[in-house]
Amino acid sequence: AATAAQTRRWDLVSGQAVGTPLSGHAAPVQCLAFAPDGRTLATGSADHTVRLWDATTGQPRGEPLAGHTDRVLDVAFSPDGRLLASGGLDRAVRLWEVASGRLLANLYSLAGGQRFLALTPSGYYHGSLDIGSLVRWRIGPATYPFDQFAERFHRPDVVRQALAGEDTAAAALTTQVPPALRFITPRYGAEVPGRQVEVRLLATGAQVITRVELTVNGRALPPAVAQELVADPEAAEWGGQREFRVTVPLPVGAFRARLRAVAHDSAQLCSPPAELLVVAPNAAQQPAALRLLAIGINRYAHLPEQYQLRYAVPDAEALAAALARLGNGQPYAAVHPVVLTDARATLANLKLALRDLKDSATEGDVAVVFISGHGVTADNETFYFPTHDVRTDDLQATALSAQDFVTALREIRARQVLVLADTCHSGGIVGGRALDSDLLAERLNRTAHQMVFTAAAQDEVSIGRETWGHGAFSYALLQAIAGEGDANRDGALSYAELRDFVTARVTELTAGQQHPQLPFLDRFEPDALFARVPARRR
Prior knowledge:
Elements: E1 2-3, E2 6-10, E3 17-23, E4 29-34, E5 40-45, E6 49-54, E7 65-66, E8 72-77, E9 83-88, E10 92-97, E11 102-110, E12 115-119, E13 125-127, E14 136-139, E15 142-145, H1 150-153, H2 156-163, E16 180-185, E17 190-191, E18 196-204, E19 209-216, E20 219-220, H3 223-227, E21 241-249, E22 256-265, E23 274-279, E24 289-296, H4 312-324, E25 334-341, H5 347-360, E26 366-372, E27 376-377, E28 383-386, H6 395-398, E29 399-401, H7 402-410, E30 416-422, E31 433-434, H8 437-448, E32 451-454, E33 464-465, E34 470-471, H9 472-484, E35 492-494, H10 495-509, E36 529-532
Parallel strand pairs: 17-23, 24-25, 24-26, 26-30, 30-32
Antiparallel strand pairs: 1-2, 2-3, 4-5, 5-6, 6-7, 8-9, 9-10, 10-11, 11-12, 12-13, 14-15, 16-18, 18-21, 19-20, 19-22, 22-23, 27-28, 27-31, 28-29, 33-34, 35-36
Helix pairs in contact: 4-9, 7-8, 9-10
């Protein structure tokens, strides 16, 4: 029982008070909980602290657990008694190690429970894909988007270790201000007569600028061109600014090109993006080919029956058939599909198909990679796509690693590459955790600069129904391509319309249990034509 700032213990049989009151809080006690073994009592108070007590003697254990900025309203022990969670009016859940009283992480639920952020005391974090639009980093009086600190502090592996109560690497919260970057030339909206543009950028900052990362309509520059934006380590002593000059090739057939540049410094911080639009009125509108690699795996040769799937193969085959109808100028000159299912979807065949896609795609083409099946995260934080012949005791040799996937995607020189990933089946397989679809999308976009449309958000499972004959994601994709995604009914399905329809339709089909994600679409060509579809009446 709690009276003001004291807590009293009572004998439930006699109804008599036991011992002296537990005194230590400076304001009324709001909540309490016993550890599973009954030996430790935790109390939360309006004084913004949590205290631990020896439940037998009534003596406090250690110093108050300080970190909340408002009244603490609830406390709860983990089943093994090692960890304690506390929550209160500051809208944060804080996780503590009971034995040491150490704060392990702060957990935040944002946007009505639709977004999350987990933050360690040393600044490492993991959160929803768009967390940078909701939370900012404060240095003195100024605030900065989280994205500018992602290279250094976005460490889901460290956060996961902290949440498990493990020791994590120490890192001081930075007080260093991120760099800045701007285009010197050309001017915004400038007309470019040819297929390339001369660009000058100026990067400034307290730390040495190491490189500038520049994309055109979301796509990475060719490696030789990108190398020109890497600073010479032997350059003169850092004087606070550095100018970069580079000749940037423009995409084939693109009337407008959006250049997006980010500067990186030696402290692993980055600038806010500098953006520039140039217009190429004489760009050749060459007929493009659509090159499709569709992978669907229902049957895994060495997995138990409960890990076999039902809809991955029909999803891949139906999508290939639907996209095949987009040739002959609808809008592609030709469609070149490659479909790998079940026994054909071995690791060797997947690597060969990705290499063939790289070799065949030209600058004006559009490439689509659809992959449906299991996804898994190994203990070393490596992502894998298990193949038909996967062995869970040797993922490295029998599954396609995300690193190999990223490397292959980076080398595809198509105008656009769209990855459709439905890898959230059954919550993962033996040998690792379920693949984090949000983290997969973020890494593929950051390292391969591709559009990545995932079937579900983090911690969600893909849903299929016999009445659909497909998973919800593929079912909605097929409906969109059939014409239902054409929101303005002009007979042209854009990437933005595809995203909007599929996201809403899957949410509707699954009664809010599954939410597809296509993040960072604004960095690419959201209004570009993806498919010609049957015109609908307005």
